[in-house]
Specification:
The chain is an alpha/beta fold and about 220 residues long. The chain has a single domain, classed as Spore Coat Polysaccharide Biosynthesis Protein SpsA, Chain A (Alpha-Beta Complex), CATH 3.90.550. Helices cover about 35% and strands about 20% of the residues. The chain is built from six helices and seven strands. A seven-stranded mixed beta sheet has the order 3-2-1-4-6-5-7, with helices on both faces. Strand 1, helix 1 and strand 2 form a beta-alpha-beta unit. It is globular, with a radius of gyration of 16 Å.
Length: about 220
């Protein structure tokens, strides 16, 4: 595939935060290119946000970027999950911005569901967020997540089934002038709360969740 001109904007930036993901980063990038790329006719940018990793994640990510112009790496000191997401939003160049996690718990091919819903002309929306149909985490994590989701939803009037699900897709313009401030895991909630306050149209679709394979 020929390298585009520097002024050509990708249709989609797909990014993921990576903190000590040496066992997963190569496969996550491969799946993003092979499974998500064709959904946008190859007009994809895969952005790895290296959040101060202390293992081989930075080295492996840089090798991937050197081998394929569609891959970029953003290195930063460790800021935490929310800080890594903010860096992804700030550095994305695509017309659309999507993210997932770098631990292979989500089926990236299911990004097709989110894109199809976003592109539905009869039901226009600004963002599509996933919810885990069956969450494959230890019971205590599921309990904590459900409690957190209920408290945040009730406290801020969000009608969201799975606030922290790491399968989300946005039109780039929703971030124009949108101040995101936290570096904590509350970032997803902050983002959805502020989008709701702006009147953004948000759809939800079910996605598959798998046990963490490594790392």
């Amino acid at each position: 595939m020929p390298e585009p001109a520097a002024t050509d904007r990708p249709r989609l930036t797909f990014f993921f935060p990576a903190y000590n993901e040496e066992e997963n980063v190569v496969e996550t990038v491969r799946r993003a290119l092979d499974q998500v790329g064709p959904l946008v006719d190859g007009r994809i940018e895969v952005l790895v946000v290296d959040d101060g990793s202390t293992d081989r994640t930075p080295e492996l990510a840089d090798k991937l970027a050197a081998a394929d112009w569609r891959v970029r790496v953003h290195h930063q000191p460790n800021r935490g999950y929310g800080g890594a997401l903010r860096a992804g939003f700030e550095n994305a160049r695509g017309e659309l911005i999507a993210f997932s996690d770098g631990d292979l718990q989500f089926d990236l091919a299911e990004m097709e569901r989110l894109l199809r819903r976003l592109d539905d002309p009869g039901r226009p929306v600004d963002a599509v967020i996933g919810y885990r149909i069956r969450r494959r985490d230890p019971p205590h994590r599921i309990f904590i997540a459900k409690t957190y989701n209920a408290i945040v939803s009730a406290g801020f009037g969000l009608r969201v089934r799975d606030i922290d699900c790491a399968m989300k897709l946005f039109r780039r313009e929703v971030f124009d002038g949108l101040p995101l401030t936290t570096d904590s895991p509350f970032l997803s909630a902050e983002l959805l709360i502020k989008l709701r306050a702006r009147g953004a149209r948000i759809a939800q679709v079910g996605v598959t969740h798998r046990p963490r394979a490594a790392g």
